[in-house]
Amino acid sequence: MNIAIIGYGNMGKEVEQAAAEKKIKVVKIITEDENYQALAINKNNLKNVDVCIEFTTPTAVWDNIEAVATSGKDIVVGTTGWYNKLADVQKLVKSKNIGLLYCPNFSLGVNLLYQIVNNASHIFNKFDAYDVMVSEIHHKNKADSPSGTALSLGNIILQNIKRKNEVLHETSHTKIKPEQLHITSTRVGSVIGKHSVMFDSEADTIEITHTAKNRRGFALGALLAAEWLVGKKGVFTMKDVMNSI
């Protein structure tokens, strides 16, 4: 498989290193840094590319997806903070007949966490004594808050725990409503990522936590997604990949 890396920050570099170890060829690195192979996303620069892997910023991601789609190439999108444009992206993918796979977190551990929280929230739906919350901690340079992973965990809980029907992700200065699910975010230092779901009652607390040790898990998950996406048309998520395993 030949890939192009769009965005050459921490994640782009991690994908490049993981690809080399897996014998996946990086044929193009697209970044604003003129010292690298390409500045623009177009058919010429994406020649011989099977899948693009995109880790940039929320302000750049739509233009990148549009340029890749116009070039007729498939794309794995790791950038978060753009999901309000998902309907437009779905229309674009359909019109250009490409494959696109997006996920707020490509870590295999996090995607296993989604399945665990899905199962747990089904169970806790039956026990009104337990309240639930989501918390996340990331490095101080993360562009979006709350994280896409925290919002995904929140959506799983809202789907399964019927007494919760609204997300509160701002600081609460008053008593929150019983139907609100509080998602809290902290930004500090160089924390790669920590996500917790807490089920709490008067008697006890049950907490499920995923802590990323480094960015390698994200890169390996993105490469797995790229391999899975080859030859497929439409919009997919890591849930589709996990369900196929």
Give me some keywords for this one.
245 residues, alpha/beta, Rossmann fold, Dihydrodipicolinate Reductase, domain 2, 2 domains, six-stranded parallel sheet, five-stranded mixed sheet, 7 helices, 11 strands, 34% helix, 24% strand, elongated
Descriptive overview:
The mean pLDDT is 95. The protein is elongated. The strands form 2 sheets. A 6-stranded parallel sheet has the order 2-1-3-4-5-11, sandwiched between helices. Strands 7-8-6-9-10 form a 5-stranded mixed sheet, covered by helices on one side. The chain has 7 helices and 11 strands. The longest helix has 17 residues, at 108-124. The chain starts with a strand and ends with a helix. α2 links the parallel β3 and β4. It has 2 domains: 2-106 and 216-244, Rossmann fold; 108-211, Dihydrodipicolinate Reductase, domain 2. By secondary structure, it is α/β, with parallel strands linked by helices. The protein has helices spanning 10-21, 61-70, 86-96, 108-124, 148-160, 216-229, 238-244; strands at 2-6, 25-30, 51-54, 74-77, 99-102, 131-138, 166-168, 180-187, 194-200, 205-211, 234-237. α1 crosses α6 (216-229), α2 (61-70) packs parallel to α3 (86-96) and α4 (108-124) packs parallel to α5 (148-160).
